[in-house]
Design a protein that fits this description.
By secondary structure, the chain is of the alpha/beta class. The chain has three domains: 202 residues, FAD/NAD(P)-binding domain, CATH 3.50.50; 85 residues, no CATH class; 100 residues, D-Amino Acid Oxidase, Chain A, domain 2 (2-Layer Sandwich), CATH 3.30.9.30. Helix content is 32%, strand content 24%. The strands form four sheets. It has an eight-stranded mixed β-sheet, sandwiched between helices. A five-stranded parallel β-sheet has the order 7-2-1-11-17. It has a three-stranded antiparallel β-sheet with strand order 8-9-10, with no helix packed on it. Bound molecules: flavin-adenine dinucleotide.
């Protein structure tokens, strides 16, 4: 971050002070003189879930690309996680993976995984954003609409609890209000076209519960993940987290629904590959109640396809694109969008920022969206556009997952892609194709 080499000018406003909003504020802080983050909630004093982020009660994975990106935006972030006692380990050697029912062979992958809760990550980002001298976090402030002049957003209408409506002028407005963003409605009301959406319905249901970390649980490993696959639309994650807890996530999709009572959760977990989740449920001591959350569909908003943009108005995070949470991509994509925003503003040219941003963000989203949707469309029940080569590609990737139980190099390659450290295309190199064949022939 270099704030001295160029003049900071103007005022930027961010709607929503969750992960994407805070990261956007960090990105804007190197170009704008003042940045105001407007958050409806009052931030909790501790690292506990809050109302505006209900998914905060569910297990979140921080992908390696996300951790590395956070460390770039806030140097020392990874060391601070370690210093705070966040459990971490190698994403392959210290973690058990079940892919299509096959247990992945273990080896050092060089990909570091962290057992960190969603509220903890947000609190840690928030602490760092609070230290930025030109960023102000305005809590308990709801944004009710945009102020517009000509073809530009010139601020927002805000309301504090029991207070009157106020106007807050701004040179740039960034919507980071999450899946409940009203950007499309606001644009329509202002006479602008609303972006088309691609929606993929998977009806994911999450149930998370935390248990006391006791000797013997997980045998010193960081965790286990059972990935859902066609014919087995159930997933499970067990992970050690901060504050000496083990989090258990049970997930179902396409009509599968994990229960929240003890016996029902155990029965659901017993049906999963491996028995780590079932073992924790059977022998662990719960520290809270099980919490359920539904995530019906993934949504990609195509702002880049609009032929008329509202100047000075950008959208980031889940408000722009929200992914099936099974793939753990949301926070990492928010990090990448913040990196993009900072780089677009770097040369001081703010002309046509909205179309330039939305075009670049759409390009950034191609890889994570196709990774997630590619996984969803393996399930024949999921509606969506399938290409002529999908069958062949899925057959190869099916063999790849089976072979990863034998050759750890294949597992490492898979995890690199899943952690967004390498593109999906990297799995199709001749070397990995040969290794897949060799492993299955052995
Ligand atoms: C069940 C589930 C599991 C997930 N698991 C993972 C995972 O494993 N890994 C991962 O990386 N991601 C995961 N995600 C996604 C991740 O939670 C989000 O991508 C991440 O929180 C960033 O979202 P966001 O900041 O865009 O929006 P949110 O986190 O939804 O925050 C929106 C914020 O805007 C505020 N707000 C809304 N409207 C207004 C308004 N009008 N005025 C002022 N404030 C407003 C809200 O109070 C809130 O603070 C998961 C999501 C779900 C639903």
């Amino acid at each position: 971050m270099n704030t001295e080499s160029k003049a900071l000018r103007g005022h930027a406003v961010v709607i929503g002070g969750s992960v994407a909003g805070l990261l956007a504020a960090r990105a804007l802080s190197t170009s704008f003189e003042h940045v105001t983050v407007l958050e409806r909630d009052v931030f909790p004093a501790h690292t506990v879930p809050r109302r505006g982020v209900p998914q905060g009660r569910q297990v979140h994975a921080l992908l390696t690309r996300g951790a590395v990106g956070l460390d770039g935006l806030f140097p020392g972030f990874i060391d601070a996680m370690t210093a705070a006692g966040i459990p971490s380990g190698d994403g392959q050697a210290d973690f058990t993976w079940f892919l299509d029912g096959h247990r992945m062979a273990k080896a050092e992958s060089g990909l570091r995984g962290f057992g960190v809760s969603r509220p903890w990550i947000e609190a840690m980002i928030r602490d760092r954003v609070r230290e930025l001298p030109n960023v102000f976090l305005s809590e308990g402030t709801q944004v009710d609409g945009l102020l517009v002049e000509g073809d530009r957003a010139i601020g927002v209408r805000t309301r504090r609890a029991e207070g009157a409506e106020e106007s807050l002028p701004a040179d740039l407005v960034v919507d980071a209000a999450g899946r409940g963003s009203r950007a499309r409605t606001w644009l329509r009301e202002l006479g602008y076209p609303a972006p088309e959406q691609t929606v993929v319905t998977t009806n994911v249901v999450y149930v998370t519960r935390h248990y006391k970390q006791e000797p013997g649980l997980l045998d010193g490993e960081l965790g286990t993940t059972v990935v859902p696959y066609p014919g087995q639309p159930r997933a499970g994650v067990v992970i050690r987290q901060e504050a000496d807890v083990v989090a258990v996530l049970l997930a179902g999709l396409l009509g599968e629904e994990p229960p929240t009572d003890d016996a029902g959760m155990l029965a659901f977990a017993t049906g999963l590959d491996g028995q780590d989740a079932a073992e924790v449920l059977r022998s662990g001591t719960p520290v809270d109640d099980a919490v359920k959350m539904r995530y019906p569909e993934s949504t990609l908003n195509h702002f880049d396809r609009l032929d008329r943009h509202l100047g000075g108005f950008l959208v980031v995070g889940d408000a722009l694109c929200s992914f099936n949470p099974i793939y753990g991509q949301g926070m990492t994509v928010a990090v990448m969008e913040a990196e993009l925003l900072e780089s677009l503003l770097e040369d001081g040219d703010r002309k046509d920022l909205a179309p330039r941003y939305f075009e670049a963000a759409a390009a950034l989203l191609v890889e994570p969206w196709s990774l997630a949707i590619g996984g969803d469309l393996r399930f024949p029940e999921v509606e969506g556009e399938r290409g002529p080569q999908d069958e062949e590609v899925n057959a190869y990737l099916g063999s790849f997952r089976a072979a990863a139980a034998i050759d750890p190099v294949l597992g490492a390659a898979f995890l690199k892609v899943a952690n967004m450290m390498a593109p999906v295309s990297s799995l199709f190199g001749p070397d990995l194709m040969e290794r897949t064949q060799r492993a299955l022939d052995a």
